[in-house]
Amino acid sequence: MVAYRIDRRSGIATYLQIVQQTKQALRLGLLEPGDKLPTAREVVEATAINPNTVLKAYRELEREGLVEARRGLGTFVRKTLGGAPADSPLRGELAEWAGRARAAGLDRDDVAALFTSVLEQVYEGDDS
Questions:
Q1: For the purposes of burial, counting CB atoms within 10 Å of the CB of 19, is it exposed (0-12), middle (13-18) or buried (19 or more)?
Q2: Cα–Cα distance measured from residue 7 to residue 27, given in angstroms and rounded to the nearest whole number
Q3: 40 with 47: CB under 8 angstroms?
Q4: How far, in Å, CA of 57 to CA of 79, rounded?
Q5: Can you tell me the mean pLDDT for 45-62?
Q6: Per residue in 54-92, pLDDT tens?
Q7: Would you state the pLDDT for residue 119?
Q8: How does DSSP classify residue 83?
Q9: Which residues contact 39 (CB under 8 A, 6 or more apart)?
Q10: How far lies 112's CA from each of 17, 52, 103, in Å?
């Protein structure tokens, strides 16, 4: 099961953080078709956010066809995304790189900006 982490200082709407974290879990293979998402009550208890915010996020995921709500049973994953499993060797290489970046004095925002610029360069003109 996924455990949501809400960053109130990020400037990103709370419901979008839930959507993004769910999609990340789907991409990494941490959530698979048939898996049950935490109930709105469980998310509220763990994060102290409004239940309507959780429901809004789940509705957005449902609208995108990623999950389905089953009345009285919960919300379940319908399909997965991507193909980068959490245990990929690339993850280890990226973790090592991030560690070197941190040791070199870069903070999280510096690393994110650097990584994003490289992604944009590598995937320039690619719609995937």
A1: buried
A2: 21
A3: no
A4: 16
A5: 97
A6: 999 999 999 999 999 999 999 999 998 876 676 778 888
A7: 87
A8: S
A9: 74, 75
A10: 17, 30, 15
Q: What is the mean pLDDT of the chain?
A: 91
Exposed, middle or buried: residue 26 (CB in 10 Å: 0-12, 13-18, 19+)? buried
Span 109-125, pLDDT tens digits: 999 899 989 988 998 87
pLDDT of residue 51: 96
From the list 3, 12, 1, the residue with the least C-alpha distance to 112 is 12
Which residues 6+ apart lie within 8 Å of 7 measured at CB?
Answer: 17
Going by the DSSP 8-state scheme, the letter that residue 39 receives in this structure is P
Tokens of 1: 């099961």
Choose among 97, 89, 128: nearest CA to 115. 97
